[in-house]
Structures are given as C-alpha cells and as structure tokens.
Amino acid sequence: xxxxAPPTTDFRNEPILELRxxxxxxxxxAALRELDTRLPLSVPILVGGDRGAAExxxxxxxxxxxxxVARAGRASEDDAAAAVDAAVRGFRxxxxxxxxxxxxxxxxxxxxxxxxxxxxxALQVRECAKPWPEADGDVCEAIDFLEYYAREALALDxxxxxxxxxxxxxxxxxxxxxxxxxxxxxxxxxxxPCGMTAAGLAAGNAVVLKPAEQSPASAxxxxxxxxxxxxxxxxxxxxxxxxxxxxxLVRDPRVHVIAFTGSAPVxxxxxxxxxxxxxGQDHVKRVVSExxxxxxxxxxxxxxxxxxxxxxxYSAFGYAGQKCSxxxxxLVHEAAADTLLERLAGAVRVLEVGQAESFATExxxxxxxxxxxxxxxxxxxxxxxxxxxxxxxxxxxxFAPPSVVAGLPEDSPVNREEIFGPLLSVTTVRDVDExxxxxxxxxxxxxxxxxxxxxxxxxxxxxxxPVGNLYVNRGITGAMVGRQPxxxxxxxxxGSKAGGPDYLLQFVEPRVVTENTxxxxxxxx
Length: 525
Ligand SMILES: NC(=O)c1ccc[n+]([C@@H]2O[C@H](COP(=O)([O-])OP(=O)(O)OC[C@H]3O[C@@H](n4cnc5c(N)ncnc54)[C@H](O)[C@@H]3O)[C@@H](O)[C@H]2O)c1
What we know:
Distance between the termini: 28 Å
Radius of gyration: 24 Å
Mean pLDDT: 96
Bound molecules: nicotinamide-adenine-dinucleotide
Number of domains: 2
Largest sheet: 7 strands, mixed
CATH class of the largest domain: Alpha Beta
Number of strands: 21
Shape: globular
Strand content: 15-25%
CATH topology of the largest domain: Aldehyde Dehydrogenase, Chain A, domain 1
Number of helices: 15
Strand order of the largest sheet: 14-15-16-13-12-18-19
Low-confidence stretches: none
Structural class: alpha/beta
C-alpha cells in the first residue's frame, strides 16, 4: 500500500476554529441543533463487531440534567472478559501488520474526526458542558494524537542505532506488548481516550477501551471513527460502564498494558491491582497512570499583573476548573499580594457563568451532582476566607459559583487536596523561596506556573520545579500535542509524557538481536 505518513517533524497541530467569526459560530450552533434532534444517542457495548447491551449507563447534560444525551451499555465482568477474548484474537492480526499500514489507518481515523468536528464539539457541549472553545480544542487534540502517534510509530519501527563491532550485527527493534486496556476520564471526553487508544494501536497492540461513565457517547464516536478507518473490530472493543468494568479489565491476566488517566485514588488502586501476578500469568503488567494535581502558580513581586490576572483567571476557571492542569492555588509575593487579590476579585466577580452552548459563557456547570456538592463543601469549609465569588449562578444544572479564597492555613484541605472545580486559593508568601517550599510540600506535581520578569528567577524555578509541566509568564492549561508533551510527576503520574516522543515506548517491548556475521559459507536457499 502507499504510505504517505511523513516523519514526525512534519507534524502540525490541527488549527482551532476562529470563533470570533460569526460563520464559525453559526456552523457550530447548526451542528448542535442537528445533534439535539438525535438525542439520546445509543452507545452499545461493542465487542468483536457485535453490538451488545445499550442500557445501564445514562449520560446527561450537566447544565440541564433532565436532558438525556446518551444511553450506553453497562459492561459487566463477563463483557470485560469477552472484550479481552476478542482482543487476544485481534492482536495476532493487528500486531503483525506493518507499522506503516497501521499508521495509515490511524490517519484515516483522524480524517473522519476532522469531517465530523462540528458535531463532535457539539456533543461535548451537551455531554460534558464543555464550552465551545474548549470543546473544539478537545476535538483538535484528538486529531493531533492520531496524526502524531501515527508518525511516531513509524519512527519507532525503524529501531534505534546501536554500537557495532566487526563481525557482529546488533539491532534493536520494538514490538507490541499485547492486549492494552485504556481507562479514561470524562474531562477530555474525546482527546484523552483517543490519545491512549491511538498510542496502543499505533504501536501494534489490541485495545479495550473503557470510557468514563459520564461521557460514553464521545468515546463511541471515537470507536466508530477508528473502525470505519480500518481498525478491525477484534483489535478495538468499546466497553462502556462504571469502575467495576475497569477493575475487571485491570485484573484480567491476559492484559499486558493498562493506560489510565483519572484521579489519584483510582490510579493508585490500579497500580496495586496490576502488580498482582495471577497464576499462569507469565508477564508483568505495565501501568501508564496519569493522575490528578494541585497546581500552583507562583507570582513574584516583579510580575506583570496585566498579563498575570487574566491568565490566572482562565487557568483556574476555564471549563469550571475541571482540567487536570487547572490552577488551584496562587502563591503570591507579599509585595504584590494586595494588588493581585483586589484585581483577581474584580475579575472573578464578573465571570459569566452559564450554559456551555452560549458563546459568552466562561464558567459552565460542573460535571455532576457529586462534583457540585464536593466543590460547595470545600467552599463552605473556607467560607470565612472568601475573597470573591461570581453569584448568583443558574438554579438548574450542576453549577458552583467560581470563587477565590485567601489566607487559608497551609494545612487546610482546600490547600492540599484536589478539588477539581472553580475554587482558587490565594496564599501570601515572603518570597519565591517560600513559594517553592509550598510547592515542594505537596504530593502532586502535575503543572505549575511562574510569573516573574527576572531571568534569574525564571532559571532558578525552572531548574528546581518538580512539576511535569511548568509554564512561565502564561496560563498553565492548554498543552499542545508535540509542542508541550504532557504529564505529571510524584502522585500525578507514573507515565512518560502524552503527546511527546517517549510516549509510545510504554506500549512496546524492546528486543535486541546480536548476529555473528563471520559466517563460514552461506547456504543456498
Ligand atoms: N494527569 C492527567 O493527564 C489527567 C488528565 C485528565 C484528568 N485527570 C484527572 O482525572 C480526574 C477526573 O476524572 P474522573 O473523575 O473521570 O476520574 P476517576 O478516577 O473517577 O475515573 C477515571 C476512570 O476510571 C474508572 N474507574 C473508576 N474506578 C475504577 C477502578 N477501581 N478500577 C478501574 N477503573 C476505575 C472510571 O469509570 C473512569 O473511566 C481528576 O483527578 C483529574 O486531575 C488527569
């Protein structure tokens, strides 16, 4: 077959829509109107091409919970086992195909997502209350993952050069590991399942995808695109359901790789469960685990507040603070603290809280009732330190008022636990060193930020910071595939960065062949 995939250096991020143009906005609204006529969508369990149960999991619109967006199957332990059966079969064929052929199929799936990008963005508006700019960005990121890993898989297939000696030929090749389970969260309902699934498939593994219970329809659209592009049904199963289905997949002794993105408690549980080696299991499972964060922005006394305030506000409250990279804390130098707090408070009070489908909305509803209650609980615990809040919020839907609290003691749970909602805590520090001590004391190390005009300070913090992604003099969300490979350290993750050159290595096994080339005669074949 013809292979058109160019090397990684040719990779370009998918351009986002220009939402300032009325025509772009109108085309998205038209896609939403069309989608609404088809709700609720049906998302069956999909194993080996058989469409199984399509009920048991209901996904609803967080901004209008009476709207049923999708009705999905609820996979049982038996469904999980059947999906692994199919994947074991599917792996033989898919894993044996040339890397170039697999890459071409993934790029075909990217083309299908591109064709459906308006509808897929509209689906995120409904299924996850993701505002348009973030929903469009999510679809672009999914396309990027497919394009990027397709190229990376070709590079990996060429192997790595080794030192050679006379009379000896050494080669190092990478082969797929086997059945890969992907367990994804809801907050990037297309991009995250797509990234982990694309990586598994690009490297030649068969994948069983267990998407988040809150966003099965986005995952269903991903599976459709991959199957339509040519991924065999046995090489990709979709098992919507709850955590029990994920846990059954993690336990299955035939599984080789588990790629998980989600909260730290679930990630740590998966790491523990995967370490059990069942009788007859002749391999050690590999877990790629991307987890939560408690992301801090350090603001030095010389920071430019005109830059910093809008960037901090967007980092903390964009998508209602429900990005793993979102800003949860600001550690501000005492010389800048009063001014920063006054300006942050002013900016937060006027945030537009509303339905995701409105282009004016800055802060949508949070994903579900539990999330709303969790945010309100933390906010209540810090109510005597409330500095600003955007209220009232709409009554219908899982809204939580975006809020800033200031001056909480360091050991407050609001300062140490992941809240995953629109609540920002501001702490005054003596200097950047004290801010670094605070960052260092946290178990998480996902993203971080620094606003400073001093090159020496920037250099010092960059050299020291434990976080996986540090952003300097800009917002701390919005990592782009290939440009900002993404992932955390400490309790925020045990994988190498998604959308970066090392990511695929986690889905393959290296093999080295050493051949004695000082042969005495060559047999005639
Ligand atoms: N580090 C990153 O790159 C990154 C990216 C996005 C989200 N996150 C994190 O994800 C979290 C939000 O997502 P969430 O609420 O969907 O997370 P979650 O941990 O509740 O669920 C994630 C997935 O795990 C499944 N699951 C639950 N219990 C399980 C079990 N015992 N065994 C196997 N699977 C199980 C869920 O059904 C879901 O599919 C936040 O903590 C956020 O920081 C991290």
